[in-house]
């Protein structure tokens, strides 16, 4: 059975690149356009991994991760932050919120898939 990954990014082109890489590797993909939209898509179904941007309108990625970690069904879902932010402070903020990995854009799909396969829940 395919594993499900939630992609959260306000850029449609980034979501598309990530989706193509993931579906090509055999994953199912759910898309969210920002943190609020993504939270509304987390309705109790099994999500094996979340990939989220940091800078988004309505709800940024760090706030989104904090909110996800409050939900019992997703408390242990691993999160990869996919972002243009490379500052140490932001990374620490992300880790404190519960992000397990930090991939900086522009990224190589292979690099992202390697992070995904390391973190994805069985």
TrEMBL record:
Q: Where is the Response regulatory domain?
A: 4-120
* UniProt-listed Gene3D superfamilies: 3.40.50.2300
Q: Which residues carry this modification: 4-aspartylphosphate?
A: 53
Which SMART domains does this chain map to?
REC
Q: Which InterPro entries match?
A: Bact_response_regulator, CheY-like_superfamily, Sig_transdc_resp-reg_receiver
The answer to whether the entry has keyword Phosphoprotein is: yes
Q: Which UniProt keywords apply?
A: Phosphoprotein
Q: Which SUPFAM superfamilies match?
A: CheY-like
**Name of the protein in its database record:** Response regulator
Species assigned in the record: Methylomonas rivi
